[in-house]
Amino acid sequence: MQRYPGHVPLNTFQRLFLFASSGIAAYISPRRADLVATFGEMTSQPFFARRLKKQMLSDPVGRELLREKPRITSKTLNLDYLRSLPSNTLGNEYVQWLDKENVSPDTRLPVRFIDDPDEAYVIQRYRECHDFYHAIAGLPVVMEGEVAVKMFEFANLGIPMTGLAAISEPFKLPKSMQKRLFDIYLPWAVYNGFKAKCLLNVYWEKELERDANELRKELGISLPPDMRAMRATRAMRPKRVVRNVIRPDSDPIYEKSN
Amino acid sequence: MQGNKTEMAHFAALAKSWWNPRGPQRILHKMNNMRMDFINSTLGPSITDPNQNTSKLTVLDIGCGGGLLSESLARRHYVQSVLGIDVTPEVLAVANSHKLVDPKLTNLKYELRSVMDLESVKQSAEKPTFDIVTMFEVLEHLDDPKEALKLAMSKSSQYVFLSTINRTLAAYISTIALGEYVLNIVPPGTHTWSKYINATELESYVLGSGVNSESIWDVEKLQGCIYLPGTGWVRFDDQSNYSTK
Amino acid sequence: MLRFRRLVHTAIKKDILVVGGGPAGLSLVTALKNSALTRHLDVAVVDGQPIVERLGNWAANNKTTEFENRVISVTPGSVSFLEKIGAWENVVHERTLAYDEMMIWDGESGARIEFDAFDSATGTVATMIENSNVQQALLNTGNTRDTVIQAQVEKIHTVNGLPTVKLNNGIEIEARLLVGADGQNSPVRQFAGITTEGWDYSRHGVVATMHLEFDDFKQTAYQRMLKTGPLAFLPLPNATATLVWSTYPERAQWLKQLEPQAFTAMVNAGVRLDMADLDYLHSLDPKNTDEIIYEVTWRLNTLDEDDTLPTRVESIVPKSVASFPLKLRQADEYISERVALVGDAAHATHPLTGQGLNMGQRDVAALVAALELAVSRGLDIGSLDALEPYPRRAYLQNQLLLGVNDSLYKLYSTDCEPIVRLRTLGVQVLNKLGFVKNKLVEMAD
């Protein structure tokens, strides 16, 4: 029985088959967003989506989201209006990030294989907010940035697919990038992911006009060093200094990147 | 005639703890329950069921000791009165003082007297005999059990209930070796093996000539039992070390 | 002229004095008076409440009143005992409901197990009955009513080797056997110096009488095992049910502060919503009725209608909401010289399997059997010889039930995922094994 538009109900056999095939296919071609999305859905059931739903039900904003089930698309978000906002606002940072990375909020696939409508929305919401996580962390869509965001999401939300991606992808990267990831970005992602408030309980659409740094502070997120800048200079910083970057908020490099 | 001297000294020593159900006489308390069950089932519901019975019986309890059985019988609605006799003054003193714990026991009397001295005992001036005579665990303590049994039967108009210990290896091991010396559940010196009487001997005493010359007596029920520590008294139907009629 | 007043201590003499006129105490008196062997014993029961006045004409006065919140589950075994002692026929039967099915489901995974009594001799799992209904039936059986003395116990002491109870009306009663049917804090137990073992569950049971949206066509008792404790929904006649919701003391307190409409919404939430919803609802201001109702209504509307769950609550009977702390207790002894304990004085359990009253009835049956035996053996009814068979029959069985109850309670008071999975699997397997379930139903009886 279809329980929400686009829902594809599966029996146990179909579920197992799809779980195995999407897993293998996604590993072979990680750039195929549809395969990755399907495998993400298969692995988030029955525990993880349910746990996230519970987290949302325990929070007033999470409940508001579940009640209203807002969607994030180029239609629901007025991108031109966001471009007109002051540069320190979340909305402006978000649209600048979209423009810089040349992506659109409409590239997210709809959830199909999760039975419970609330749980399906939870996963849908996670996908649609993915760009906000990039924006709030200031990380680019290149593989290196993607891995850092995935790890950040995994630490924050515990969705297995994000963890799998964060662990398997780095080994496909060149050594220098790997080192940067392991020294700077993954520790930053784990630390901030755990420390931050559950990001699914953020009504991003209602925070667009707020000062981005103020929001980061409220959510408990510190900005990592600018990855684009670092990739441009290709200069490896001495390890000792770099290590310090990731934790104390008063670190000079952290201050500079703001 | 007097009771056996050593036996008397032994029971005098037991007097103090006689009524403590968790003391050295615990097994006797348990045995008393079984005696009452045996008496009730032998008499049958026509006497023991309060809804059926209206008649009341008189009882002579020979070897009443501290009065366990005497009190029990005196409390039953089908018993009119109980006379308990014993040869040990100390235990009779216990029986008399314990009787006062229950003020309703006005139909119970005790007398210092031997079983060999029953001639003058009368239920009342008109009626020399009792409806029930009981003689539990007495024969094995006497020098002449056959004569004692004859006297007891002469005092009963309806029932004689009695019990004693079989002279068998099993009885020796359980009552003397284990009971008195190993497990200490019975005070040492309580029993003398040579005085034990077998069920068949007992049966022949009852049915034999001299006692039962006019063949008016019959053995109505014969039951055996053994005490298993941890379980309590267990009854079985033959091979008794406990019998009655 | 001179008037002399007698100063000599004279106590009334009773064979058996029962302290406490609840179902256990009154059952004991009624059973003793019903037995040919024990009928002659002089028995009295003391209670501080005016039970005869309040309950003597209960049947005539309570044709249409609301159900009280003290409703108990009586197993067929207890019913047949009450029948045997002649009390069951005096029960107001229109105010009882015999249910033939019990559905228990996991608050985390939703896994369920159904017990039914379709194959049993009585066809009944248990009968729901108001506490007062049982008491009045007992009072009106035989001459039980005449044995009741209304007075507070002031002091219990030993005079001439017998327990003697001093009442606040100046009367002193000396008993050959003193029976404590006087509840969890039993003064009789304290007099006898009997200690208890056990613990508090740090849970409170919230009770209420509820009107349902419509009468259920099934007679089913429901129990939802939440991590905060079980929520039981027990059927009564005329689209009514009684609630026993065990939960954290602060949540019980919170529930008691709710307006009736908010309480109704919370019960519907407790039966159907996710624990996360319940946690959130409990974080709201208990006086904010509108918000509570709004949140519950929204969440209930997201659910598909499930007619295997209990009918929704329409309203609750005002002032029927109450709570009590939950404990597990077992007295170290049920007897001592001239003292016996029955019912809650001897043991207290979690209401999880509805065994409280039934354990008390089994105690009474065992004590009466012991006393009948004692009378047939001519024993002093207060002596240890007379009383010993009672705990032998009752103690171990109660210990076993207390243990099972406690284990069940602990098994369901967690939301730890692996344990939830395991118990869910266990229940799914068990639910398929009809013969094992029938055995369990029998065991609980």
Automatic annotation (TrEMBL), chain A:
Question: How is this protein named in the record?
Answer: 4-hydroxy-3-methoxy-5-polyprenylbenzoate decarboxylase
What family does the Swiss-Prot or TrEMBL record give for this protein?
Belongs to the COQ4 family.
Query: What organism does this protein naturally occur in?
Result: Starmerella bacillaris (Yeast)
Bilayer topology: Peripheral membrane protein
Where in or outside the cell it occurs: the entry states: Mitochondrion inner membrane
Known role? Lyase that catalyzes the C1-decarboxylation of 4-hydroxy-3-methoxy-5-(all-trans-polyprenyl)benzoic acid into 2-methoxy-6-(all-trans-polyprenyl)phenol during ubiquinone biosynthesis.
Cofactor names: Zn(2+)
Which reactions is this enzyme annotated as catalysing? a 4-hydroxy-3-methoxy-5-(all-trans-polyprenyl)benzoate + H(+) = a 2-methoxy-6-(all-trans-polyprenyl)phenol + CO2
- GO (cellular component) term, any one: extrinsic component of mitochondrial inner membrane
Associated pathway: Cofactor biosynthesis; ubiquinone biosynthesis
Keyword annotations: Lyase, Membrane, Metal-binding, Mitochondrion, Mitochondrion inner membrane, Ubiquinone, Ubiquinone biosynthesis, Zinc
**PANTHER family attached here?**
UBIQUINONE BIOSYNTHESIS PROTEIN, UBIQUINONE BIOSYNTHESIS PROTEIN COQ4 HOMOLOG, MITOCHONDRIAL
Q: Which residues bind Zn(2+)?
A: 130-131, 134, 146
| Keyword flag Mitochondrion | yes
Query: What does the record give under GO molecular function?
Result: 4-hydroxy-3-methoxy-5-polyprenylbenzoate decarboxylase activity; zinc ion binding
Q: Which Pfam families match?
A: Coq4
Classification via InterPro entries: Coq4, Coq4_euk
Q: How would you summarize the oligomeric state and partners of this protein?
A: Component of a multi-subunit COQ enzyme complex, composed of at least COQ3, COQ4, COQ5, COQ6, COQ7 and COQ9.
Automatic annotation (TrEMBL), chain B:
Any one GO molecular-function label of the UniProt entry: 3-demethylubiquinol 3-O-methyltransferase activity
**Keywords for the protein's UniProt record, in alphabetical order:** Methyltransferase, S-adenosyl-L-methionine, Transferase, Ubiquinone biosynthesis
* Pfam families in the cross-refs: Methyltransf_23
**Single GO biological process annotation from the record:** methylation
* Gene Ontology cellular-component annotations: mitochondrion
Q: Does the keyword Transferase apply?
A: yes
Superkingdom in the source lineage: Eukaryota
Write down the Gene3D superfamilies for this protein, in alphabetical order.
Vaccinia Virus protein VP39
Q: Which NCBIfam families match?
A: UbiG (TIGR01983)
PANTHER family associated with the record: METHYLTRANSFERASE, UBIQUINONE BIOSYNTHESIS O-METHYLTRANSFERASE, MITOCHONDRIAL
Listed name of the protein: Hexaprenyldihydroxybenzoate methyltransferase
UniProtKB/TrEMBL annotation, chain C:
EC identifiers of the protein: 1.14.15.45, 1.14.15.46
Which cell locations does it reside in? Mitochondrion inner membrane
Which top EC class applies here?
Answer: oxidoreductase
Q: Name one Pfam family in it.
A: FAD_binding_3
Stored InterPro entries: FAD-bd (IPR002938), FAD/NAD-bd_sf (IPR036188), UbiH/COQ6 (IPR010971), UbiH/COQ6_monooxygenase (IPR051205), UbQ_mOase_COQ6 (IPR000689)
User: Its pathway?
Assistant: Cofactor biosynthesis; ubiquinone biosynthesis
What are the names of the required cofactors?
A: FAD
Which terms does the record give in the GO molecular function aspect?
2-methoxy-6-polyprenolphenol 4-hydroxylase activity; 4-hydroxy-3-all-trans-polyprenylbenzoate oxygenase activity; FAD binding; oxidoreductase activity, acting on paired donors, with incorporation or reduction of molecular oxygen, reduced flavin or flavoprotein as one donor, and incorporation of one atom of oxygen
Would the keyword RNA-binding turn up in this protein's UniProt record? no
Q: Which reaction does it catalyse?
A: a 4-hydroxy-3-(all-trans-polyprenyl)benzoate + 2 reduced [2Fe-2S]-[ferredoxin] + O2 + 2 H(+) = a 3,4-dihydroxy-5-(all-trans-polyprenyl)benzoate + 2 oxidized [2Fe-2S]-[ferredoxin] + H2O; a 2-methoxy-6-(all-trans-polyprenyl)phenol + 2 reduced [2Fe-2S]-[ferredoxin] + O2 + 2 H(+) = a 2-methoxy-6-(all-trans-polyprenyl)benzene-1,4-diol + 2 oxidized [2Fe-2S]-[ferredoxin] + H2O
One GO cellular component term = extrinsic component of mitochondrial inner membrane
**Superkingdom of this protein's organism:** Eukaryota
Q: What does this protein do?
A: FAD-dependent monooxygenase required for two non-consecutive steps during ubiquinone biosynthesis. Required for the C5-ring hydroxylation during ubiquinone biosynthesis by catalyzing the hydroxylation of 4-hydroxy-3-(all-trans-polyprenyl)benzoic acid to 3,4-dihydroxy-5-(all-trans-polyprenyl)benzoic acid. Also acts downstream of coq4, for the C1-hydroxylation during ubiquinone biosynthesis by catalyzing the hydroxylation of 2-methoxy-6-(all-trans-polyprenyl)phenol to 2-methoxy-6-(all-trans-polyprenyl)benzene-1,4-diol.
Q: How does it assemble?
A: Component of a multi-subunit COQ enzyme complex, composed of at least COQ3, COQ4, COQ5, COQ6, COQ7 and COQ9.
- Please name the source species: Starmerella bacillaris
